[in-house]
Amino acid sequence: MTSIEQKEADPEIPDLIVDNTTGTTYVKGRFFGKGGFAKCYEITDTKTNKVFAGKIVSKKLLLKSNQKEKMMQEIEIHRSLHHDNIVQFYGFFDDPNFVYIVLELCRKRSMMELHRRRKTLTEPEVRYYMRQLMLGVLYLHEKNIIHRDLKLGNLFLNDDVQVKIGDLGLAARIEYRGQRKRTLCGTPNYIAPEILNKKGHSFEVDVWSMGCIMYTLLVGKPPFETKSLKDTYGKIKRCEYRIPTPLRRSQQAVMMIMSMLQGEPSKRPSVKELLNHPFFSCGYLPPSLPVSSLTMTPRFD
Ligand code: ADP
């Protein structure tokens, strides 16, 4: 950044946010978090008192290269989605300084915080979370959308501990049957080998990421973790991981992870096939989880 740019003070997000297109006014409430571009606040519609998450992006940040186009692509994809396991998109608008996206509020943060607190989850919990994640991803894939950045931090939780997939910033639409995407601007967390090898990629990358998510939830750390990104990428390309043996894990869980973490994308099962995997029927699948399970191991008896 040049010194001239540094001198200009960043505009502040107003306490009253007005959507001139609909005449709706929101009161800005508590700060939720900050991502690569966006700041997220609780916002309340002054007329209805309904509370939402407001994802707010400074227009200054959108001036660089193709950031504006990327954000429009995210909005274009997200606004077309309606599913219980996907953060609902309610609208977007702007003022001279900011772009605002109005989203379903997920007050219980994300599965990243859950993982930090609990490290490993019980198999019934993993069944619960993986099923909801897969129902959301099935919906995306049936609409020809690949998420491309499924990770714990993008799996938000509402007050009822329901999974809501969010942040469609790297999502892409498959335009014709069999299309392989060649480019991806950004660094997905649980990146699939075919993206690293630039071989062309499609829906299978989401299955790979879900394999990494399931592994992390059961083992307590990601499958290809090393001290450097270079080493991690090497391990991913060689599909080099192991599931530690002190197994309190069911064979079905191990089999499901192994089916998803296959180097060859065409060998991975589809989301539909995964939802029928014996893992989901070999043990207890809770219909709901108590909020206390976000911090303490729940007992199912
Ligand atoms: P970016 O696209 O800039 O990375 P994110 O979508 O990751 O932005 O959002 C930034 C932060 O805002 C998240 O880490 C999270 O703390 C919070 N956040 C995002 N969406 C919601 C939501 N729907 N409900 C509650 N908090 C959210």
Automatic annotation (TrEMBL):
It is found in: Cytoplasm. GO terms for biological process: mitotic spindle organization. Coiled coil: none annotated. One of its GO terms (cellular component) is centrosome. Residues 26-280 form the Protein kinase domain. The keyword Cytoplasm applies. Its EC number is 2.7.11.21. Its main location: cytoplasm. One of its GO terms (molecular function) is ATP binding. It comes from the Eukaryota. It is an enzyme of class 2 (transferase). Keywords: ATP-binding, Cytoplasm, Kinase, Nucleotide-binding, Repeat, Serine/threonine-protein kinase, Transferase. It catalyses: L-seryl-[protein] + ATP = O-phospho-L-seryl-[protein] + ADP + H(+); L-threonyl-[protein] + ATP = O-phospho-L-threonyl-[protein] + ADP + H(+). This is polo kinase. The chain holds residues 1 to 301 of 576 of the full protein.
